[in-house]
Amino acid sequence: VTIIRGALDLQDKAVHIAMTPIDKVYMLPIDTIMDRITMREIYSTGHSRIPIYGGSRKNIIGVLLTKSLIMYSPDEARALKTFPINTIPTVSAETPLFDILNTFQEGRSHMAIVIEKEENMPIGIITLEDVLEELIQEEIYDESDTRIGLAVKLDTGDQLILASKKRRGESRNQVYHKNKFKSPKSRAGSGQGTPSKFEIESNRAGDLMIFDEPSMVPTGASY
């Protein structure tokens, strides 16, 4: 039933609803040197496709398939412009998701640049996975997903932990699970024990984010 409802909604939902805004997209400039540091950075994002731009981030000239990097040694430190760069189609922000799904099914690309019609400027990126998530109405996770922790300050004694899963290198598609607990300081003072392993590891990794107001707590899918 969920998939049927999602399929019916694809005709009514526009591309801009499911896209990733252009300022949130991981990209590389065409003059990048593909050395060991850059390749490690690309790997850490977990992306299979990297948009490539020339000059400005809004001048996207193609897409790099990360699987093609296996053929090259980072010790060569080659210029990115010498690598095979695939063309990337453009689509209007108001295009129905059903139409872009048909375009993706043709197999020429699983990523497209979303263009704002009036200014004819890119405002985001849409992928096949984005459309499929709208179809099945839930997030798609794979082996590159990681779990992070967000702590939200509610008052002087209590906090709210939001354990979320996010794809490595991305900040969207987060699913939050709330769990109220006493803050480490207040629990230590009241004899309620030491911080949990989750809190300790999250603090060490720098994953804890403190919000001043409960209204700032992220809910649902967000950027």
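The record above closes out task 2.4. Task 2.5 opens with a second protein, given below.
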Amino acid sequence: MEAATPSAAGRATRDATAHADPGTRADARGGPAAPPLVSVVVPVRNEAPNILPLVAEIEAALAGVPHEIVYVDDGSTDETPARLAEAARQAPLRFLRHRASCGQSAAVVSGVKAARGRFIATLDGDGQNDPADIPALLARAQAAAEGAGAGGDRLLVAGHRTKRRDTWTKRISSRIANRVRARLLGDATPDTGCGLKLFPRALFLDLPHFDHMHRFLPALVLRAGGQVVSVPVNHRPRLRGASNYGTLDRLAVGVFDLFGVAWLQRRGRRPEIEAAGGAEPAAEAPGGTARSAGLPAEAAGAEPTR
């Protein structure tokens, strides 16, 4: 699944409908539920056969870890909505639906904005990323966040598929693209195409959002003054369904995006504030962060607004 239209991220935010399991909104005493430590954001399009198996794997991998699962259905035309509604009755899962397909990056943006966790883990919805790797990435991010001067609050932990289970055309094209990208952008990341990544939610919201941005997260994080570390992760063959995009299409679009991000890197960087003084700043309005998602909340199972 790839971003396909201009300003898709903005359109997706306007056109998303939220579906939430009531159990994720309140605790047993009727008060607001405590925010989870990690939100697993999964963008999907026409992945109906993979929904329930992948949700079960995520639940098993994060047993004992406060978490939520946020699926973003990017305009599926198969049984994905029905499978998501079924999964939401069995797990701490919420899902959003784009009225029309806006692309993978737009789906990730919608999911992160709707998420409540301090950390975000992203993975592809085709089952090729292994949810069992999430705890190791989370531990790495937590350790960095707790380390003095480690910049852990701005650390991206990126998965590196050392043994890819893809067709030879995908492997070769990705290898070439990674080398060209690393040379041009200097992001020192061997596998930016891996969907399994973990980062602080606040860090992602501080980045520029545009079509296909998910391919360039390491470069964008470095531009924002953050850090990137790559960790080897498992990669599995696709067992169900079919890929929703072609290798040549992805490669052609990626070339244009690459030069666009290189141009962005050469623009002025944001200043880093070293010290401040004077009166205390005004408190943030209640719910300001949560409302940044701009997503209308509707009852679980409701149909998208027409």
